[in-house]
Amino acid sequence: MAYPNYGQTPYNSVPQPGNPRQTEAWALTEAARRMSLAQKEGASSDDLLVAVRLNWRLWTIFQAELSGEESALPDQMRLDMLSLCNFIDRRSVDIIAEPLPAKLDVLININRQIAAGLFSTPTEGAAAGEGEANPAAITGTNDVV
Length: 145
What we know:
Layout: H1 20-39, H2 45-67, H3 75-97, H4 104-119, H5 124-127, H6 141-144
Helix pairs in contact: 1-2, 1-4, 2-3
């Protein structure tokens, strides 16, 4: 597997095991970071394609998990996420067919937004559906990406 030639190792930081939310947020952030690097001047079209394919594989994993009967998400959220997976599929194919760096913006934004939600820690009331996530507990993805 190739990585953009920016002096980067494949992974700068890896989440600790045992926290699926943090792992998923990290994976989305890492994919967004790689796509962002692939947009920079001097990056090759191969770098762009590698980053898009990595992101597409990640979303395919999410799609497989969401399609299973054992998915713990509420039905509406599961359906919304599957719809988003379908969009990622279509957009990825479009980018692979015509690899233009500007087309990555929407995928980068989606990854960062979903990661920000996963990085947040719901308060007890929010976990029960009564309140909002604790803004002080949110780790911004722009600092990581």
